From TrEMBL:
Lineage, highest ranks first: Bacteria, Pseudomonadati, Pseudomonadota, Gammaproteobacteria, Thiotrichales
This protein's UniProt keywords: Oxidoreductase
Keyword Oxidoreductase among record annotations: yes
GO molecular function: oxidoreductase activity
Protein name: Aldo/keto reductase family protein
This protein's record includes keyword Oxidoreductase: yes
Domain of life: Bacteria
Length: 53
């Protein structure tokens, strides 16, 4: 996984993010956990949550 520095911070975020806005409507909780686990094993650390997250 490739990472980029986040602004002027010391944080590095993955170039690929995991979007979660539609979770709860399009998948089960179990499927969501599986997707999060997979993303973590792939090095994804940038997650985007939905409205009123």
């Amino acid at each position: 996984m490739q990472y980029r520095q986040l602004g002027r911070t010391d944080l590095n975020v993955s170039l690929i993010g995991l979007g979660t806005m539609t979770w709860g409507r399009q998948n089960t909780q179990e499927e969501g956990f599986e997707q999060m686990d997979y993303a973590l094993t792939q090095g994804i650390n940038f997650w985007v949550y939905g409205f009123n997250g």
